[in-house]
Amino acid sequence: MFYKNGITAAAILLCASAACAQSAGSVLVTAGWLHLAPQTASDPLRVTSVGGTPTNIVRTGTHTNVESADTVGLGINYFITDNIVGEVFAGVPPRHTITGTGTLQKYGELGNVKQWSPALLVKYYFGSATQRFRPYVGAGVNYTWFTNGQLTNSQFAKDNYGPGSSTDVKADASWNPVFTLGASYAITDRWYAGAFVSYLPLQTTAKLTTTTATKTVVTSEANIKIRPIVTYLSVGYRF
Fold this sequence. Notes:
Layout: H1 2-15, E1 27-37, E2 41-42, E3 46-50, E4 53-58, E5 62-66, E6 69-79, E7 84-91, E8 95-102, E9 109-116, E10 119-125, E11 133-151, H2 154-161, E12 166-171, E13 174-186, E14 191-199, E15 203-211, E16 217-225, E17 229-238
Antiparallel strand pairs: 1-6, 1-17, 2-16, 3-4, 3-16, 5-8, 6-7, 7-10, 8-9, 9-11, 10-11, 11-13, 12-15, 13-14, 14-17, 15-16
C-alpha cells in the first residue's frame, strides 16, 4: 500500500514540476472530433448568362442551406513563450450537404461539396506553464476552398433546366479571420485533453454552369454566408 501511494505521490509531484509544463519550446500535437455548424444565409439564385448572352435574372425565393458536418481535426501547437502559442490547424475535408429553402425547400437535398479550411492561429494561454487546466483565447487567419461540388437532385435539374441537362458546381475560395476560445487539461506529464469553439465569418459565391440537352450553356450564381461555429474535442501529446 505504501509503495502504491508513493508512486501516486511521485506522479503528482512530477506533473506539478516543469516536466508537466506547457512551456516555451514545447510542441503539442492534437487530434480529435471536429464539428462544423454553418449559420447559413443565402441570396437568391441569379442567372448571369444564357447561351453566352449576359443576363441578370434574379429568381426570387431560391435560397439554400449548408448542413452541419463532422470530421477529424489535427493541430500542431508551438509554445513560443509559456503563454503565447502558434498553431497550424486543419481538418480532414468534410463533405457538406446543400439543401433547398424558400421556393427550393420542396427539393430537399440539392447536392454536396467538400470544404478545405486550414488555419494559422496565435493563442494566449492563461496561468502558469505548470497548471493542469489552462484556458486560452486566440485569433488567426483561415483560407477556405471547395472541391467536388455536385448537383445530385435530378428533379431540381429537370424542373429548372429541362431533361438531359448537366450542371457543374463551383464556389469561390476566400481568406477569413478566425476567433477561438478553448482550454487544455494535463492528464499526465505528456497527454492532454482539450476543447475549443471557433467562429469563421465565412462567405462564398456558388457558381453553377449548366449545359442543357440542346447544348445551351446557362450560368447562375448565389452569394452564401456560411459562418460556421466550429467545435473541437481532442486529445494531445506534448513533445
